[in-house]
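Hi R.,

Here's the chain you asked about this morning:
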Amino acid sequence: MAIASYPSLVIDCPDPVELGAFYAALLDWKTESSAADWVEIRADYGQLISFQKVEDYRPPRWPTQDVPQQMHLDVTVDDLDAAEVEVLKLGASKAEAQPGTTFRVFLDPAGHPFCLCVG
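And here is the predicted structure, written out as tokens:
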């Protein structure tokens, strides 16, 4: 029997409204609540990601661990090239280090690494 269930992931960032909007657009999820220091986005099937404001936020330095990753998301796509174009339009940047061929590493607007992975 499980002790707990997995309700959501909370991501630290300097601007929850901006980062929530980025991931809502990336995943086509709806913003459920919004405040200056907390934003939630939810999938139609119930999965939730929350974004919380952190004062003096320092973005991770991927791939080094000078400032650890803190978290990263892997999202599945059908076409890496097409998905890359779209996430760059949303405000992501492509990481210099690209260690694989079936996935690509990007940085969200707050500097968190995330990967587009071939499904």
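One quick note: The first helix runs from residue 16 to 27.

Cheers,
M.
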